[in-house]
Automatic annotation (TrEMBL):
Protein name: ABC-type glycerol-3-phosphate transport system substrate-binding protein
PANTHER family attached to this UniProt entry: ARABINOSE-BINDING PROTEIN-RELATED (PTHR43649), SUGAR-BINDING LIPOPROTEIN (PTHR43649:SF16)
Gene3D superfamilies given in the database record: Periplasmic binding protein-like II
TM helices/strands, residue ranges: none
Signal peptide: 1-21
Pfam families tied to this protein: SBP_bac_1
Species classification: Bacteria, Bacillati, Bacillota, Bacilli, Bacillales
Amino acid sequence: MKKSFLIVLTLILSISLAACSGNKNGNASNTGGNTSNNNSEGEVKQEPVTITVSGYPAETDKTGRANFDARIKAFQEKYPNVTVKPDTWQYNAQEFAVKMAGNSAPDVIGVFASEGRIVAERGWAADLTELIRNWQYSDQYSDDAFKLFEFNGKRYGFPKGSYVMNIMYNKALFDKAGVPYPKAGWTWDQFIDTAKKLTNREKGISGFGTTGKGGAAAWIWSNFLYQAGGEVEKFEGKNVKAAFDSDAGVKALQFYKDLRWKYDVLNPNALADGADINTDFGNGKIAMITHGDWVVSMMMNQFKMKPDQVGIVPMPVGPSGKSQAVQGGSFEIINANVTDKDKLQAAFDWITFLETKDEAVKNEQERLAELKSKGEVWAHVMMRPYKENSEIYKGLKEIWDANPGTFVQWPTELYNQLYASGHPEPPVEAQAWYTDVASVIEFVLSNKNANPEELMKKVANDFQTQVLDPYNSK
């Protein structure tokens, strides 16, 4: 879910992704951040090539533009035969299909992690399989990093940042209540039991906190939809159909209703927003919340929680028998209309220009200096694209190990568990879906007599007729 309170940063490297699941505003962008070397350090072709790249910051964003311009300058110094033309257009689903049909989309495009299936099946993204395979650093990247843009054995995007949602909990509240810390594989029933034991109305403590208004409410609830075995959409040929009013969808909505009215474990303000929830968690008024990647750092920096007071655990296992959690982030793709071999290579070189050990270490050292100057720590639970035995990862870990007071490291086992639980966001009109379903979440959390089945049927019908049918007709 592309919401304002979740900022998805580039994996490991320090450059922020202005567009993705972090900034949940419906626009994804390339950044003046990570890109990589050519697939070899050898001969560089000298045929003149021009590429257009999306995500150029607005004129008012002077710092962003300066960083992007610096990236262009550095790239063109290495590849003097390539001219890079930045485009201020940033990805959004409503315009992308039109631009592709009119052949006016940039050559390199930053997209949400949720768009993988659409851009692949509709032939909008170039097949990058061979380019990635021949790239000199390909063996240092984990296969999991490409999962959301890999279909039928082919890769259509390059990862630029990823998160998998999880449960963050306050260990101090668990200890005071005498409740064991949750472990991977815990079930819905165990989640409920844990939340009940942690809830203490006399002390103003809620076992679980969740936002109840705006698109973020549906984004968080979708974790439980997937855990129940449901999906937001299904494909029938090239048409997309609403699927979230299934038995699993109703069950997930009933689960939310029960958390509120039957078990009374949620925050008293049912319509709290993300900032409210984070504040209450940081102040010890909520024991567990859903979490993407960056909020844990905020808890330690803004609310002065110590690293050993914060726990992270995968989402619970639902009726489907699986732990499922929203996996989001950003990828960069190459326009499928780019067929010239030299231009295709130049576009890939742009995407991967800074993806080297030297650049990764340089960026992390800059991050370290900035954090120390502010007296802050870095505890993000970002998904790692690198294999642990890779030179890039080893270079980064040397910095982390040498600065334990600045970098909080999470166990490798946790990352493996999160990757295994990752579920992509809705591939078609995700933002519209979040907005539509938010009204249902708000109603269920505000009305004890709400009927989950009736609500789901109605919102699914509305989403189909007002959003998906027009999309299918394009």
